[in-house]
Amino acid sequence: MRAEVSSEKGSARSADRDRGRPQPSTPPQEDDQSEWERQEQQMLMQQQDRTMSRIGATLSTLAEQAGLMGREIVEHNEMLGDLEAGVDRTANKLSGAMAKMRKFVRDTEETKSGWCIAILIVQNEMSDVTQAKSASTATFVTALVTNAAVAGIQLAIFTVLRPHFKAIYEPRTYIPDEPKRVQSLASSMLMWPIAIVRSDYTEIKRTNGMDSYFFVRYLRMMCRVFLPIWLLSWALFMPLHSVGTTAGKTGLDKFTFGNVATTQQARYAAHLIFLYFMAGWIFWNIKKEMRHFIAARQRHLVDPEHSSSAQANTVLITGVPKKFLDEGVLAQLFSHLPGGAKAIWLNRNLKELPDLYDRRMKACNKLEGAEKNLLQTAAKLHLKAEKAKAKTGDDSKITKDLADPLDPEASLVDQLVPRDQRPTHRLPPFKWMPFGLPFMGQKVDTIDWCKQEILETTEALEKGRDTLRADIDRPGTGEDETYPPLNSAFVLFNQQIAAHLAAQSLTHNEPYRMAGKYTEVAPEDVIWGNLGLNPYEQKIRTAISYAATAGLIIFWAIPVAGVGIISNVYGLCESYSWLAWICGLPKVVVGLLQGVLPPVLLAVLMALLPIVLRLLAQFEGIPRRTGLELSLMTRFFIFQVIHSFLIVTLSGGLIRALPGLLQNPTSVPSLLAQNLPEASTFFLTYIILQGFTNTAGGLLQIVPLILYYVKLFLLGSTPRSIYNIKYVLRNVAWGTLFPSVSLITVIALVYTPLQPVMAGLAFATFGLYFQLWKYLFLYVLDQPASGDTGGLFFPKAIQHIFVGLYVQEICLCALFFLARNESGKASAIPQGALMIVLIVITAGYNIIINNSYGPLLHSLPLTLAHKSYGMPHEQSLPSEEGDGDPEINAEADTDDHKPLKNRAVKDKPLPSKHDGFAKAKKIESGGIEQEEEGNPESLDEDVRKPPTDFNHPASVEPQRPIWLPKDTLGLGEAEMRSLDKAGIRASTDDAEMNEKGKVSIDGRPPE
């Protein structure tokens, strides 16, 4: 094209040159022809111009297109450059992240943190489900071997230490009173396991009370429950889940419920039959144990030693209206019951008296410590002087060391100890502060200050008690009294059956009036601050308490998550620049923050939880400490089931199912049905930990062993503190112990049909626990008689078994309905429907048990009235306790012929002479005076001075004696005489201090 255009342009330029030259003249013909040629050329030129215009437009279009293509190429080059830079940045970030992960793992390994392991386990489960499933077997085997090894080491140490530390491992062989002592466990070092197995658990009733007995009985019951369940589940489910299946699971997971292939859904019928058998077997055991519980508790209530105690014959009544706040009026009200009231104590608003009593008790404790320090200092100075005399042979050296040898009125201890070496302390700088501060507040001599404090508080208490006596003697319901009565009272009955009838009767004709009635009340068990609450206020407090408990359970994950965040210090430094300085700390400090601090904080949180729950129960207005423990048992069990079981179960199953759910959201039912049972691996390892390590640790008791000697070294200074460390035995808190065992029951019940290995481990765990706690309650622990409920924690534990059954049946019902065959259709609808029927049967049986045995839990029936205190013994009725129960009848025959010295004396019998000032007033009008045998004694002079057991300690208790040790110099006796002269009770009985200042005791504290 370019050649043609150039040719045309050349022709046009030649024609222009020709036109510019002179032309020769031509004839006219030639002019016409030339004109024609010229027009033809003009036409050709115009045509060429038009062609050139089109070519120019085409070239312009091509140029624009080329420009656009160029710009696109530049943009693509820029995008490729950005992509390359992004790839480089991503590679750098991945390299940095991997380096940080390697550093985190290395630091975690160095600090022995378990948090990294948990994170890696979760990451592994989320990244590769197959690997996680195969790893469950390794996890189980590792946990089994590790816990077995740790348990073996602990048992070996226990075997070696047991014969040499009787104070830790067999204190009940010499510390309790003779009727409650036991024989030594075994003379041979290696024979202790056989001795524990052969020991009779029923002896726990004599040595430690009914609560301890029924706890061990519960463990024994669970052993019996899980023995056939274990054998049947292994024989049935292990081949059923693992043989001939095509689900493809390996290792431990092939025994799980989820290993049943979609083509073999008919096998679920075996699970249904097993669950019906399991429920029926548990129902039979519950019925048997509840029958035994009622019979054993009733025998305990009418036992002569217990039945004759004030605790067994007294009822605490709350919500008493004002017009009934008079001893005579209450005595007349309860005169309609057999025997009537023997004594009545109105609880009063003592105002400042409890604070004065507490101040005096603190001053007594402080004075004992200060006197002991003074005597110890004097002994050391005297020993130093004696050594100096022995070296020099000069008696003047001793005289020079005396503080003031020329003062004839100074005591020997004052002569030996200079004034500046006497015990001192600082008073609080502000009155509202409970303790003093260093370098702040007035510095005082501790002994002089304590003496003055004891004398002042004693004088104030005596003055207040005189006023209180006058208020009690004044007739009426508390008008114009200094210490007016509160709306509660203790009523002591002449007959035990009358106390139980009073607790069951409808006492008042208005709502919430005298509705709170409590039997089996011990003075040491009373929470005095909760005796004056209005009934409506108590209802509101109860609602607030349970609402706070629910909120605590729901939001407890927040502080736990905070602890987890602390465990990732480097992540905090990376995410928040203002925390970057933490990573700049020394490596050891960061390791402590990341590896040590989180487990410690988590342990503190778990230790604080029961304390908070107890405070909520106390805020509710519960008047007894045993009531607090019963309430705590329910609250703590709910918390354990939700946080330690349900959340862990759901989170474990969902984490395993998460990859499949993301790939195929429509497979939610089948994936959950397959993966939810595989969360059992964690609980298998948990049961192994409880059964092996915790049992062996319970025998070894390494923490009590260490604390025993640490306390003796750091706190064992005064005779009283040494007695408390050496001779006051440890006890357990039922509100936290029972839920921890009930949680194992719930876990085992739920996971047995899903993972049959669980049943065998549960049987082993309960069997080991049974032997452990039998040993502890027979040889180590001592539950106070005042805190014994007669076994009321046991029925609550039975209710926890029903909770486990409900969770198990609901879980299996859901799994049956979620099961799908190879075509994706529901394959276990009949099994799911029959599980609903089983849930209804379980609920119905639960209701039957509660309705049949509930009314018998607390009170005595009239059929046992002839066996109770204050009644003449009559011929046994056909429906007496133990009827139809060979075990109870055998125990009854044994107990009836057992010598009195071998039977437990848990309660103080009713005294025949009374020395208190609380009284039941004589009804002068409208009352019936009865003086014959069996009639109320509350109207005679003897009852006007009933036992002082149910008075507030601040109103009756004398000053506790100051317990000082005797010494070789006679300083202790001199200080005792000095205190007695000042009006402060003191004693040096059964306590001694040697010449080096070491204190020892050989008797109980003076009281």
> What's the overall geometry?
extended
Number of helices: 33
Report strand order across the widest sheet.
2-5-1-6
- The multimeric state of the shown protein is single chain
Radius of gyration, rounded? 44 Å
Task: Explain how this protein is built.
The chain is mainly alpha-helical and 1007 residues long. The protein is built from 33 helices and eleven strands. The strands form four sheets. The chain has a four-stranded antiparallel sheet with strand order 2-5-1-6. The protein has a three-stranded mixed sheet with strand order 8-10-11. Strands 3-4 form a two-stranded antiparallel ribbon. The longest helix is centred in the N-terminal third of the chain and has 84 residues, at 28-111.
List descriptors.
33 helices, three-stranded mixed sheet, four-stranded antiparallel sheet, mainly alpha, single chain, extended, 1007 residues, disordered N terminus
Note the topology.
Layout: H1 2-20, H2 28-111, H3 115-127, H4 129-161, H5 166-169, H6 192-198, H7 204-242, H8 268-301, H9 304-307, H10 310-313, E1 314-318, H11 327-333, E2 341-348, H12 353-392, H13 396-401, H14 412-416, E3 424-426, E4 443-445, H15 446-473, E5 485-493, H16 496-504, E6 516-518, H17 535-555, H18 557-566, H19 569-575, H20 580-583, H21 587-619, H22 625-663, H23 668-675, H24 680-700, H25 702-714, H26 719-727, H27 734-751, H28 757-779, H29 793-818, H30 829-853, H31 886-896, H32 953-956, E7 962-963, E8 966-967, H33 971-982, E9 986-987, E10 991-993, E11 999-1001
Helix pairs in contact: 2-21, 3-4, 3-22, 4-24, 7-8, 7-28, 8-29, 8-30, 12-15, 17-21, 18-21, 21-22, 22-23, 22-27, 23-29, 24-28, 27-29, 29-30
